[in-house]
Write a structure and sequence with these properties.
6 strands; globular
Length: 137
């Protein structure tokens, strides 16, 4: 999917550059994965990538260099993250489509613990990757 030069600073320009890198990574990933999903061993179900996956992750992960690196481990995270908790949704517009949120974690060598939030859609119960961020460095 390419080699990325990821800025490590905290200037608005650095954050914007990381946002563009994450967005491009997701779009390249979707081109290479037409089903736009991966089977998760812990949930024993598929986790899907949708538009909300890209927008939320771009917004949150771009704020941190390590979170941006974490997103580049998308396949491993989707497949191997383990369920930690199930929570109610927050009262914001991006979570209205979900009935609950599943908090998952993945231990990534060199990055530490990565948190993935997965939304469970109302009616269909489809699992959708909502956001990915690095917790430890």
């Amino acid at each position: 999917m390419g080699i990325y030069e990821i800025p490590q600073g905290s200037t608005p320009e650095d954050i914007d550059a990381r946002r563009r890198i994450i967005s491009k990574f997701y779009h390249d990933w979707k081109d290479q994965n037409p089903s736009q999903r991966r089977y998760n061993l812990s949930l024993k179900e598929y986790i899907n990538i949708r538009f909300v996956s890209i927008t939320e992750t771009c917004t949150h992960a771009a704020k941190s260099y390590h979170s941006t690196l974490a997103v580049l481990q998308l396949d491993a995270i989707l497949t191997n993250a383990k369920r930690i908790a199930t929570l109610r949704t927050k009262a914001n517009s991006n979570q209205k489509q979900f009935e609950k949120m599943i908090i998952m974690q993945y231990e990534c060598v060199g990055l530490g613990v990565i948190k993935m939030t997965v939304g469970v859609r109302r009616r269909t119960h489809e699992k959708v990757q909502y956001c990915i961020t690095a917790l430890d460095v």
